[in-house]
Amino acid sequence: MDHTYLHSKKILLVDDEPELLNMLCTFLAEEGFENIVTAATMKGGLDAARSESPDLAVLDVMLPDGDGFSLMRQIRTFSEMPMIFLTAKDEAADKLAGLGLGADDYVAKPFLPQELLLRICAVMRRYYKEESTLIILDGSTVDLSRAEVNKDGAVISLTAKEHILLETLARNEGKIVTVDALCEALWGDNPFGYENSLNAHVRRVREKIEKDPSKPVSLITIKGLGYKLNTRK
Amino acid sequence: MKSFRKYISKYLASFVGLVLILLAVNAVAFGWTFYEVVTKDYGDLSPQNMLDTTAASAALDGISDEASAQLRRSHIWAVYLDMSGNIAWEIDMPDEIPEHFTIQDVALFAKGYLADYPVFIRNTADGMLILGYPKDSYMKLSSNYFSIRAIETMPFFVIGILAADFVILFLAYFFSKRKILKNTEPIIASIEELGSGKPAALSIQGELSGVANSVNKAALLLSRQNQARANWISGVSHDIRTPLSMIMGYSKRIADEDSLHVDVRKKAEIINRQSVKIKELVQDLNLVSQLEYEMQPVHKASIRIASLVRTCAADLLNDGLPDQYSIDIEISANAEITTFECDARLISRAINNLVQNSIRHNPDGCAIMLSLDCTEDRVFLCVSDNGVGLSAEKRKELQERPHYIESTDDRLDLRHGLGHILVRQIVKAHNGTIQIESEYQKGFKVMLIFPKTADAK
After folding, report:
1. What is the pLDDT of residues A30-67, one digit of tens each?
2. So where are chain B's domains?
3. Nearest Cα residue to B135 out of B154, B121, B115
4. CATH classification of the domain holding A63
5. Is there a single domain that holds both residue A34 and residue A97?
6. N or C end: fewer C-beta atoms under 10 angstroms in chain A?
C-alpha cells in the first residue's frame, strides 16, 4: 500500500548508538521521511517528545539513563502517539511488557532498516487514516472509507463484515492472511468453526470485486492457509 | 540410592563373616592351649589310670614293688583301709593323716580332700584304696548341685539365649541401617540430582549437616556458574546486535544502490547474507542457552495448534521464499479442532528452524511440507521435504551427536548452526520426542511428537 501520505509525519528515534541513529535517519530520509528527530538518552527523548510533538516514536529498550519502558510510560502521560520498541533482547517477557504498556509494535535487533520501515508504516496507517482509502484492483476500485466498490461504473456497497474482510486483506496487501487471522478480525477472539461463514463472505466479496468471480485474480485463495489480496500499483 | 543400600548390606555381610572367623580362631586357640593339659590329665598319671593300675596290684596284705615304685616316682601317697577303717598298709603317707578312720572321716574325705590333699578312692573286695596327690595339683568342684530338671532344660536355654542374641543383633543392625539410610538418603538423592544438573537444596540437622552443607554449596556454585554462563552468552549476544544491525543495514543499502558497479553490489549482497546468518546464530545461541539452564520461562498456554502452523507457513511465505522452494500444508480434520498446551513462540521457532534447515540443505530447491495430525493424547507435527536427504551415517550422526554443552569434542561442528539443537531443546521443554526419517536423495522428514497436555508423559 502506498505510504507517501505519511511522509509529512514527524518521527522520533531514541537510541544510545549515534551510528545507528545516523543510518536510520539516512534510510528513512531516502524513503521520503524528512521530518526526523533523534535523541540518545531517556531525558533527551522525553524533552524531544514534549517540544517536537512527533507523530510516532521508535524507542530503544536499553538507554544509558533508564529503559525504554519507563520512557514510554512518561511520554504516555502527555501524548497518545504510537510507539515502537527496538529491543536487543529477544526474551518474550520484554516484548510482553512492551506491548502490555500499550506499545504498538516491537522490532528485535538486529533488523534490516526495511523491516523497521514496514512496521513504522503499518503502525502509522492504523493511527493516521488516509482521507480516501482507495484500493485499486484488477477489475474494480474499493473505497474503504465509504464502504463502496466501483466496478464497471456501477457502485456496489459493502456489508460491515465484507468491509472488515477487505480492510484486513488490504492492510496486508500482497501477503497471505491466514483463515484464523481473518476469522479473528471478523468474529473476535476464539473464532472457532467460522471457516464456512468466512468462505461465504469471501464468495460474496468476489462477486462484488472480481471481473469473473469464478476465476478470481484479486482475492485469491492460498490453499490450506488463507487468502491474499493483490492490488494494482 | 540402591547402590548405597547394597553397599551397606555388603558391609554387614563382611562384618558377620569376620565374627565367624573370629569364633573359629578362638576355638582353635583354645584347643591348642588345652590339648596338652587335657592329655596330661587323662594320661598315664591321671587319677583314673593310677587307681586302675594300683588297685590291680594291691590287696589287703600289700602292693607289688613295681606299683609302689611307680607311685613314689609320681609323688603320690597311698593308703589301704580294711573294712573296719584301720590302715592295712601305706606308702609315703604324710604325718597329718590319722592311723584310724571313722565313718565320719571317710564321709568327709569322700568329698575329695583329705587334709588338703586331693584324694581319689577305689573300693576293692576286701578294703578301700586311697591315692593322695600332692597339694594343689587337682581341684574338685564339690559345691555344684543342680536339679535334673535344670540340666534337662540346659540345651533349650542355650539355644534360646543364642536365638535371642541373634534377634537383638539383627534388630540393632536393622535399626542402625534404617537410621543411616534415613540420614544419608536425602544427601545421596541430591548428589544424584546434582549429577543430572539440577539444583539441590538440603536441610539436615545433626552429624551429617556438614555433608549436607557441602552438597548445598556445590549446588549453589554449579547454579551460579550456569547463571554466569547464560548471562555471559546473553550479554555477548545482546552487544552484538546493534553493530550487526548496522552491518546488515548498510550492506543492504549498498547492495540496492543502482549507481554502484554490479560487482560491488554483489559483494555487499554477500556481506548482507552472511550477517543475516550471524543474526540467526546469535538468536539461536541465546535461546538455546536460556533453555538449557532453564532461565527462559516456558510460557505454556492452550492454543489451536492448526492456527499456529498456518501462521508459521504464511509468515514464511510472506517473508519471501525463493522461487525454487514451495511450502505446502496438510492438517488433518482431527488436528483442526485440537488445542495443545505449549509455548507458541517456541513451537513456531522450532517449525521455522526445521524449514530453514530444509532450505539450507537444498540450495537447488525443494518442496517443503508441514503436516499436523493428532490422536487422543498426542500431537504429531511433521516437517518434510523432497530434497537431497541424508545418508544413513549422517542421519545416525545427527541423532547421536552429543549435546554441544555436554560435548568436550573440540571438533564440534556448529557450521550448520544451532538449529537442530534448538529444536531438540524446544521439544524437550514440551516433553516431546523427535523422529528423523531420511534416505539419501529421498528427502528429509522430521516428526515432532508431543503429549497434548503439559504434564502428561
Report:
1. 888 888 999 999 999 999 999 988 999 999 888 888 88
2. 47-132, 148-296, 299-401+417-451
3. B115
4. 3.40.50.2300
5. yes
6. C
Q: Does A111 touch chain B (CB under 8 A)?
A: yes
Closest CA–CA distance from residue B336 to any residue of chain A (Å): 10
pLDDT surpasses 90 at A69: no
The residue of chain A nearest to residue B241, with distances taken between CA atoms, is A110
* Phi, then psi, of B303 in degrees rounded to 5: -130, 165
What does the alpha-carbon distance between residue A61 and residue B154 come to, in Å, rounded to a whole number? 94
Distance CA B306, CA B371 (A): 9
User: Quick check: helix, strand or coil at residue B221?
Assistant: helix
CB crowding B313-324: b at 16 or more within 10 Å, else e: bbebbeeeeeee
Section B119-146 average pLDDT? 82
- Taking the CB of residue B290, how many other CB atoms lie within 10 A of it? 18
Are both A32 and A101 inside the same structural domain? yes
Same domain membership, residue A120 and residue A199:
no
Give the three cell numbers for residue B138: 587337682
User: Are A36 and A119 in a shared domain?
Assistant: yes
d(CA B369, CA B330): 7
Q: Among all chains, which residue has been given the C-alpha cell 511522509?
A: A7
Contact A178 B283 (CB under 8 A): no
pLDDT higher than threshold 70 for residue B452 = yes
Q: Which three cell numbers stand for residue B431?
A: 516433553
The residue behind cell 573286695 is: B125
Using CA atoms, how far apart are residues B87 and B102, in angstroms rounded to an integer?
Answer: 11
For residue B456, pLDDT beyond 50: no
Pair (A103, A42) in one structural domain: yes
**Domain range for A216:** 134-229
Mean predicted lDDT score pLDDT of chain A: 85
Contact A27 B242 (CB under 8 A): no
What is the number of structural domains in chain A? Answer: 2
CATH code (residue A196)? 1.10.10.10
Compare CB distances from B314 to A23, A88, A225 and report the shortest one's residue.
A225
- pLDDT class for B309, splitting at 50, 70, 90? very high
- Report the percentage of chain B scoring pLDDT > 90: 12
B10 vs A102, higher pLDDT: B10
**Whether residue A139 sits in one domain with residue A122:** no
Query: If you average pLDDT over residues B143-150, what whole number do you get?
Result: 78
- Under an 8 A CB cutoff, do A180 and B304 touch? yes
The whole-model pTM stands at 0.62
What topology is assigned to B299-401+417-451 in CATH?
Answer: Heat Shock Protein 90 (3.30.565)
User: Same domain, yes or no, for A32 and A56?
Assistant: yes
Test the B interface: residue of A89, A176, A183 with most B CBs within 10 Å: A176
Q: Does B287 touch chain A (CB under 8 A)?
A: yes
Half-sphere exposure of B110 (CA within 13 A, CB side): 10
Q: Give the three cell numbers for residue B293.
A: 539452564
- Grid coordinates given for B320: 519471501
Q: End of a domain among A74, A103, A127? A: A127
pLDDT one-digit tens code per residue, A122-178: 888 888 766 557 888 888 888 888 889 998 888 999 999 999 999 889 888 888 999
The answer to whether B411 touches B392, Cβ cutoff 8 Å, is no
Is the pLDDT higher at B288 or at B25? B25
Q: Which residues partner with B58 through β-bridges?
A: B63
Claim to verify: residue A60 and residue A170 sit in the same structural domain:
no
Nearest to B245 among A92, A111, A172 (CB): A111
Neighbours of B47 (CB within 10 A): 19
Residue from A26, A89, A109 to probe the interface with B (highest B Cβ count within 10 Å): A109
Q: Does A27 touch chain B (CB under 8 A)?
A: yes
